[in-house]
Amino acid sequence: MNDAGRRATVAGGGLLLMVANIVMGGAAGGAEGKSNPEAGKKIYLESCQNCHGPTGKGDSDMAAYLSPPPANLTAKGTQSKTDAQLRKVILEGRPGTAMTGYEGAFEEPQLSDLIAYIRSLKS
């Protein structure tokens, strides 16, 4: 096969992967509406409640020892953040706080589930 043929084959394969990714995007848990808040609750209870409390209000037993206190995840300020903003805080943490980043701790579907659960928290 000549160079032009190889490039066309590679480009065609790339296009096929892109189309498959668009069609199957929901299967990976990343598409809106495909997240599972109940699965996110399990992740929250294992990884977040020690600081943010069982209801997400930042009122855990440990919160009294943290300065600044953990964010109230039910507050309008938190709930008005975009999913991308929440994802960034979860992955990178918040400088100057006890919130460390969880980069590499969760797969993308787990992050989507966790964010869906955080969205379900109400004050």
Major β-sheet, in short?
Answer: none
Which topology of the domain at 37-120 does CATH recognise? Cytochrome Bc1 Complex, Chain D, domain 2
Give me the strand/helix succession: HHHHHH
CATH architecture of the domain at 37-120: Orthogonal Bundle
Describe the structure in your own words.
The chain is mainly α. The protein has a domain of 84 residues: Orthogonal Bundle (Cytochrome Bc1 Complex, Chain D, domain 2). Helix content is 52%, strand content 0%. The protein is built from six helices and no strands. The radius of gyration is 19 Å and the shape is globular.
Secondary structure topology:
Layout (H helix, E strand, L loop, with lengths): L2 H22 L12 H11 L1 H4 L23 H4 L3 H10 L15 H13 L3
Helix pairs in contact: 2-6
Short description:
By secondary structure, the chain is mainly α. It has helices at 3-24, 37-47, 49-52, 76-79, 83-92, 108-120.
Output the keywords.
123 residues, mainly alpha, Cytochrome Bc1 Complex, Chain D, domain 2
